[in-house]
Batch of 3 targets.
Target 1
Amino acid sequence: MKLLWSFLFLSCLCLGFLGHGYSEKPEVVKIGSIFSFNSVIGKVAKIAIEEAVKDVNSNPDILVGTRLQVSMQNSNCSGFMGMVEALRFMEKDIVGIIGPQCSVVAHMISHMANELRVPLLSFAVTDPVMSPLQFPYFIRTSQSDLYQMEAIASIVDLYGWKEVIAVFVDDDYGRNGVAALNDKLASRRLRITYKAGLHPDNAVNKNEIMNMLIKIMLLQPRIIVIHVYSELGFAVFKEAKYLGMMGNGYVWIATDWLSTTLDSSSPLPSERLESIQGALVLRPHTPDSKLKREFFARWRKNPDAPLALHTYGLYAYDSVMLLARALDKYFKHGGKISFSNDSMLDALGKSGSLNLEAMTVFDGGEALLKDILGTHMVGLTGQLQFTTDRSRIRPAYDIINVAGTGVRQIGYWSNHSGLSVLPPESLTKPNMSASQKLRHVIWPGEAFQKPRGWAFSNNGKELKIGVPRRVSYKEFVSQIRGTEYMFKGFCIDVFTAAVNLLPYAVPVKFIPYGNGKENPSYTHMVEMITSGNFDGVVGDIAIVTNRTKIVDFTQPYAASGLVVVAPFKKLNSGAWAFLRPFNRLMWAVTACCFLFVGIVVWILEHRINDEFRGPPKRQCVTILWFSFSTMFFAHRENTVSTLGRLVLIIWLFVVLIINSSYTASLTSILTVQQLSSPIKGIDSLREMDDRIGYQVGSFAERYLRDELNISESRLVPLGSPEAYAKALKDGPRKGGVAAIVDERPYVELFLSSNCAYRIVGQEFTKSGWGFAFPRDSPLAIDLSTAILELAENGDLQRIHDKWLMKNACTLENAELESDRLHLKSFWGLFLICGVACVLALFLYFLQIIRQLYNGKPSEEEEDAIGRENHDSSSLRSTRLQRFLSLMDEKEDVSKAGSKKRKIDGSVNDNSVSRHSRRLDSFNSVNPLD
């Protein structure tokens, strides 16, 4: 019995501790919801929230023993009404609010939520400026427009468009969304050229819309992003179709307001559907799942659902589920529902009649907020989890195309994978830029080709095109005498021909630039584009680095580059011109090779060829004669040995190449006029102290001064071809210049009529001439395509020949000195010949040594062997004499004597006499004791 009482006491004690750790759950938890009941989003959200509350209350795993109760209020997207309804909530012990729907309401009541510590879970506010730093109790369960605008910028960048027009509703939602779009476009070097704001009132003003669209028609960009509410958006599309703006050339990109309407009101009325044909639409992406499919099936069976389910209905459902799971976690952590009065509100309430003392602060608001942010769940919209800045992880959008009687999905965008034709959840790695793509699009006007995105404005305004008023080289561009705005020349004809190839009219007005007394500064002229004085510049404008930093150039229509022009003097051929084809080393090596080959052939032929035998004097003459007669293939001696013939064949091939090269070089020296100048190019010109001329207005002055560090005191401005000729003729000693640095097109035109000067050295810069336009100008791109077409069809060359084809001087531009032939051009041939000679000699001597050691020793050798101990050098001397005699004797005689010695040990008379003479010689050198 005592044991039983002890057990009961311990049980009560444990229950007491447990009861102290876990607060008692309330039977009912009240939450609020505020949105616009009559909107497309609100009609669906109302049913979705009710379904979510039912699912929470019927789920045995969530809020066990506690029932969730929701109270809904209609804000009608009015800031004032939203504030009033929120105040009503604060009198009902609300622990959380689902909503609001509109940005203007969110901005109003978020301040109230901060003070009263009531979390706001917004399922539809996409305004990107709702910062958690300013509004810590505001939680966005949908996706921010920051990501939607980044998706639009990706689409614009994908198709290569540069400028867009933004049509938006002029409230927090519209302005902040367009501001985010502008930032995202700017990060890609794109821009919004025009922003058209519309009044946010529900009453659609047709005249306002019409006037706005007419202004847009007069602008150049044809990419229009529309970020409004549904009724206002359809009104814009209706008037745009009436004005023909839903046809070819236009691109309309609508934000998720249109996809929400399409999803909830499918099919649309035919009039509305017809007005949005070809538009691109973004829709928040929700991954496919079994949970989502089951909920869609329930929705279709729900008789109370007035519209089809759309994405924001799914967000509303998940918001309720998230709050319910967070409350469940809150209660499990010991949280309880309690409210307290705010002293400041009490004081204000007692001093007036606003009844502010009725509003209370939720004591557990901060803890519940942490539980909401820390709750991870998989809902109808996929993984619901927040980043550090309280955005949903992996935001993504569907990209759809309105075509025919419905819509086509053409791809996806996510901040993880960019643009893709595959769902973002199926991509594990971020896509590279090369893989960014979408499916085929049917554009407005049922066009299948990607619109250019730009058209010349149809406002009757002419482009102000700056043209240099040149005073020299007027073949390139010149003002027609007696006119103010008319020009002619090579550059003008190219520009006119390119403009005529454009698929649209471009009215232009040429504005002369310069005083007409000297060529203007082209750099200053280009800078006037950035200041807005010119819409473009046409002329002989060089494309150089400092200019490309401030303007865009077209494709170059003429090649250019800086060259050096200098006077020259003629070189006479002279009496010793025949020696000039080869340099000294080449002559020396060639002569040595002739002699070396002659000696090699003599060695190989001496024993078996009578033509290479005889007295020493005769043999020396034979070697020299044979060597140099091979130069003309006139050698009379025949080669008999195989090795000799091989060497001769290789040598004759070498001689053939040398003869041909010598003849060609000598012909060039004697027939082509040779030129000479002390200046060899820009490098030698820099090392000198003489003055250098340049054309007035050219970038050559800046290049010589800044890039090549040539003193400005050495630079002389020259304004005409006549000034060029005079300065070069006078030279630096008479106040002229040593050389002129200018662009090649000018120099070629100058040299066509001044034959006393030539280009020296190589072109030391590479550039071209183009037409200049403001940065990111689509006209520059279209004209570049037109210039390429002119080059391909030959029109560009015909224009060049018309203006710049002049009678050239009789003397062609040549190098200052004829290139001599050097050994490096022939060392391969000499190497082959040398290797062949050495190899032939090696084989020949190997054969001789073999005969020397295999033959029977002579009597002298036998005597020397016997005396080896007495005189060791005798044997070596005897063998050397034997080797030399073997080299000198004829091969057939040597063989015959060897055979007879083997048969009978006797020799013929010639061998005996020759042997006797050798013996006498041997005895005279080595007398016997």
Target 2
Amino acid sequence: MKNIGAGLAWGSACVLMGHGPVAVAADAENAGAEDPRLGAVVVTAVRDSMRTALQIKRDTVEISDSVVAEDIHKLPDYSVAGSLQRITGVQITRDRGDGDRVVVRGLSQVETLLNGREIFSVNDAEDYGRSLNFAAVPSDLVSRIDVYKSASADHLDGGVGGTIDLRTHRPFDFAGHKVSVTAQGLHGDLAEQVGPKLSVLLSDRWQSAGWGEFGVLLNVFQQKRYYREDKKDTGAPLARTDIVPVRTVFVNGGTSEYVNLGDREHSGGNLVMQWRPVDNLELYAEASYFDFKTTEDTHQLNVVVDGSTSFVPGSAVLFPGTDDLQSITWTNAALSQLSFIRDTLDRTQQAAVGGSWTGKSASVRADLSYTKSINRLVFFGPFLSGTVAQFSQDMSGSVPSTSVSGTDLSDPATYTGATVGFANRPFAGELFAAQLDAEYFPDDSVIESWSAGVRHARRRGTNAPGQIGDFPAAGLSVPGAAALGLVGAPSYDNYLRGEGGASIDNYLVSNLDGARDIATYREAFGITSSIATQGNPLSLWTIDEVSTALYTKASFVGRTLPIDGNAGLRVVHTRESVDGYRSVPAAGGIAPVRVDSTSVDYLPSLNLRYELDPGLYLRAAASKTMTRPKLSQLSPSTTLFQNIVTPALSSGSGGNPDLEPVRANNLDIAVEKYIDAHSAVHVTAFWKRVRGFVTSVSAAEVHDGVTYQVTRPQNAGTGHIRGIEVGYQQFFDFLPGKWRGLGIQANYTYVDSGSTSIIVGQTVPLQNLSKHSANLVGIYERSRYSMRVAYNWRDDYLSGVTNVVGVGAVPVMTQAYGWLDASFRYRLDDRLTLAIEATNLLKTRRDANYDSRTRPRRSETNDAQVGVALTLAF
């Protein structure tokens, strides 16, 4: 078995051969040379990035935080989401080891920008078509991240939680020409493979007689990361009255044990051209793209326990003092083995042109942009079924123990049936936006500037040609498939790194080597029917949205008091047109439907900053904000799942075109003390009252004569979010000798939240929000080398709600966990930098339960990764 050491050796060899790893070299403008004077403080990349981020926070009137890249191609953390989680009030969730969803102060409804303009992804994550999938953004392309927690009238509407602005490099950022090339090899301990990465930045600026100054920058990125993700799920609790006499016992609904094996290919780039014909006029054109492709094989074994599964008499043991089952041996339990490919493509592209003019007492800015995003998911593979003689569960350990006896899972004859499933789900969206801003600077006035602007945007989202599903029975038996090599033993081991109790092994899986040739693979399993090219019309939808926003803002400064700030109003008019299909039971068919709606939102904002003492600031902010529902929630379409065996369990899901935006009133108060250029402490208290939280409600609906329990979103009542953020950073320059290179960043966030729940009579915390979270980052930077160790911890949080027949709605709670990353960088000379980066050093296992540790839900683990990198910059 390969190990991390082997990966490092391979990466180092690649560096020596000129093919491998790399991290960013110190920019000549940012990194100081080694000072020959003993004990001198040298300002280098990490220290300088912290200083710049702190200066941005200090200078910004709104309450905000920033992350600044240490060098070209080098955010402080491995990913954009990884860097964001270091900011107070920001929490992330992970998928396949990557940070993807971002929550700011408890809300996922965050406005995402690229260089100040809206950008989005149409994936199936939390906010379809409204926010960017941060896992899709190559961190090497980002020079700076600004997180605005209080609103201003000139900020784009749409961020109830806040606004995140990703900034990329521009040619006028550099004094002259700049070249940076970074190569890296990244090894995962579970995937046991090394993936390459290459980043290249080329930039130059020059004067042309009579034409002014020109600048061109090209930044491109390519990476392939191999990963493995192990998960062990325990079924939702079921109420049984036959386990213990005269007692209702809650039993676990079986087990699902699976391994995701795959790779993720990131590619991206941006091209920027700037032209400054005269000193006060600048024009630009730029284009950016992010491609995020996942190629994944999943092998999953399920043993299903339901309300009628028999058991060995006397084998049941309950957790002491509860009605929850601790261990039992079931008999004749249903078995299924699923092997399938799950490939996704997430692509976002943006092009923009614009310019700015600055006069003696006024300035004007204009921007025109077009954004396009697509997402594709292909799911395909065999499902094998059977029965196991005995299935034992023991929930007493940190990970449930499971085993099968009396049945040989490696024998093809154990599996009595096979189905080959296929699903294809497309999403697409586009946005055209035009913005014009003007600012006037009056002379000798308490008003520093008056600004006003207009933005017009047209957005479209669609899932045409709809979700396609096809699940025919295979014409080939499982023994026949095994004889052809289509079924065999799994190629992985060390499931969940051997943690917890026993897990089921030695079972058959399908060979997916040829599964991406779908037609040929289906034929091999004896399936000759063709796959539909169009989804059920009931699932189709197209949404057109037109919004026009006007704003005015006054920025002011006190004449006799050290106070400044801004006050403004943003007015947004939105028109939605939703097209789809609905079932018409009386006519025995379906019919097209179109729903039109309009809304007007008035969004006032106020930001104040008072300097109590040199370097000591008191801030206050108040605003109203709003976020429109995600596009898929607005669709009138319905996806139905008919249960032929048990018709009462037929279900469905759909949208609701009558949804209102989520709206919030916000109040913030902050105290900030800036000790020196690199050191500060700050405390912020915040409060939000949110109206119109979207929750899911189920109701019976009749489609084609069949009754389905259909879940649709609807606006709920009000909710609250309140909390406090504490942050501190400092370099200990007062320490003697080489100890002066030590620095620290630490922060803590407390958030209390509550919203209306589908759990009747309960107010629950917001989903994916921990009440407590903290970061601790240790830094040492001296002369040519720097080290950084970063630990992130978050408390328990609500990660979902499951509806269970006979039990009702049950919350799913993910348990507290910590995540440790580290990096080491050594500047070989003025042009070359060697870096070693590691993520998930603790090999964290994340656990979840059904609101009680006696009801386990999931255990999952991801790769610990180590990368070796080399950067050439000049």
Target 3
Amino acid sequence: MVTRRLPSSASLLAFAAAWGCPGWTQTIERADPEAGTLAPVVITGNKASLATAQDIKYQSSAILDAIVADDVLKLPDHSVGDSLQRVTGIQITRERGESSGVTIRGLTQMETTLNGREVFSAGTGRNLDFTSIPAELVSAIEVFKTPEASQIEGGLGGLVNLRTHRPFDFSDGISALNLRWMHGSLVDQSKPQYSLLLSRRWVNEAGSEFGALISLSHQQRAFREDQKSAGNPTQRTGLIGGQTVTAPNGTSESASSGVRKREGLHVAFQWRPSAGVELYAEGGVSKLFTRQDTHQINVFPNSSATFAPGSVQLFPGTTDLQSITWTNAPVSILAFARDTVDKVSNGAVGGSWKGGPLTLKADVSHTSSFSSLYFAGIGLSGTAANFTQNLASGSTSISGTNLLDPANLTVNNVLYRYRPFKGKLTAVRFDAEYDLGKGFWRQLSGGLRLAQRSANNGANLVFGDRAVNVPASSVSGSLMPYPWSDFLQGSGAASLQEYLTSTLNNARDAAALRAAYGIHTALPTGGDPIGVWRIREDVYSGYASAHFVSPGLPVDGVVGVRVVQTRSRLDGSQSLSGVVSPLSINNSATDWLPSAHLRYEPSEGWVLRAAAHRSITRPDFNQLSPSITLTPNTVNPLQNQGTGGNPNLQPIRANNLDFALERYIDANTTLHATLFFKKVDGFITTVSQTEFINGAFYQVSRPRNSDPATIRGLELGYKQFYENLPGWLGGLGLQVNYTYVDSRTPSTLLGQDVPLQNLSKNSFNIVAMYERGPHSARVAYNWRSRYNSSISNIVGLGAFPIYTQAYGWLDASYTYRFSKQLLLTVEGHNLLKTVRRSYYGNSTRPQSIWTNDRQLAVSLTWRH
């Protein structure tokens, strides 16, 4: 196979070429067809991993970015999501100090694949939760901004493919072991982590080759996240004579601590019985278990609450409350265990056969996923004689009441909730490629894929909260003082830290917890049946594509089309005046998804790209639920109401256009700029409309496809190692990228176009690097501008956006290589102990403050 080459990148190209797998985008090649096959290599160090990623980008016919592990068992960042944030066009949100939500060019609707096969986490959505995959199992991440016809549909923003190791990735056998110890500064706990990879290759006298690989990972990470939230803003009269003041309805302060345990296993076998034939079998399982204890105090003055005279101050020039002292304010104290489980299992068998110009491939795979939420605890109540709240500093205090005295508290409820989700997918795929030789058309490709996916939410949310009225003094043995003395450290906000809370000793045995407070009835086993949904989708897809090379010009490209038919069965319920009956709906939709990728190389190292494609994303499962609740109004039928899902939702569809300019100076230096435009039709919003159901008109609120929206933006990137600098300075390197995204999507609540949620208009990464001799260091800073995190609709104030302020995040690592076999790494994450803040509409209406641990880690890696 012919190969385009970058200067000094032969071994890196070989690494990329070794990744033959379902869904791998095409490379159009330009060098000597007799150049031969290069052996796979092991990537070591930041410089080599970045050079390999650069080469993958250069070789691809699609517009993509790649992240390559800088050693066995070692991505550049400590998690998949944190690595993704370094890619232009990608932004992340954070939970418990880790990356959580991921967007590509502002869109959460992306396709996620593992080794080219669709993979997902069970839940209401369709994508994989990247936090569930141990980073040590991943050899590379590919972010396709412009997917080709051969790739699985479903990515409105793009496609993220995670690659795991295979035995033929390595030229010989390899063994690697990583031991790590990670410490969380706020929770003040350290936890162990380890990962292992073993790979071997065998060749017999006949030339048949067999390989086997096993990779496993076990991580534990202790964490703490502090959050203080002002209550929703409300309009109050009586605080200042003759004025209506916008004031929060109190405060909520919670400290959540616990341990995240992440386990993963991947096994792969490859067999090459003869030239042109290769068979494989691979599979694995990943599991994320989060065990969390939360202690929370809430003070919510009611509408008739009193206040200390002279304590009211407003933000200058506004009617927004700045500070106040409430009197006799109701207090609620919650202590609860919140545990989640996310498990993804996958397996596949397949192979390829090459005979002359024809290559045939087949792949059969199965994925299953399960997730659950367990929530249990107790709630106490009391009254604060004086509650002072300062919105400017975020400080709060209570005086006149001793909340450490159980005589001042009552246990008023016992909490229990449980929610499961399940999902399964079986897929069969066949692909064929035919090489046409040296003419204009170089290769024809085509394939078929049949997939059956199912999803359900079990028995819905099981809700078992029970009211009790037990004096706290009678159960004082199960109470303790609030355990933390440094809440929101570094935020400058004083907080409520002197109160009794539950020990949570029985919190993970809900029956025992209830029995301790006199509740002896059995735990509920099902939730509201109207919320139960079960969905099955049969997807039939096929594609055809052609690859061309202009004989007289440095132009090549890929054109193709993918056709997808989705047949759905959606099961739910209808509730009419409290009577529940089953409801099933069948739907079908067909989409044609053309794509074209053009590449022009006017001179060595310069690449111009243009790409156009059509993409779709199917609605989330809970949005498709056919369940509906109808509430007739017997007095005035014009006020009949209804709420539900919408099984008739159409996929969200987008037309996409990209232009890219890339400059490859050498294997360690590159610049790129990309312009992109998306016209998106059918974003889903909840809208109330009049519908005729069962012979009557109802005002029904349900998800509906909305008007078209636009997304446009610019991505810039630069990477270089300054090898020509004298002496030790020759190890310096710099990676910088910037993303600008402008989006407009209709909002029914606001009645105007607004930016996409969780999308910053501006974001950038600066990564300073050093690699020379045994030393390798990396300091990475990520920043994103203010973004709209949600929309709030409050009685009396109407609808307005909730903004999260701009913030930055700093990570760093240093590695010392004692030898080729042994290296020591020191890492620091969230080194700035970033304080994140959000507000309602403007900064004089603050909403929340968050702080997270600074995480420090030491690891030792051995490989042979």
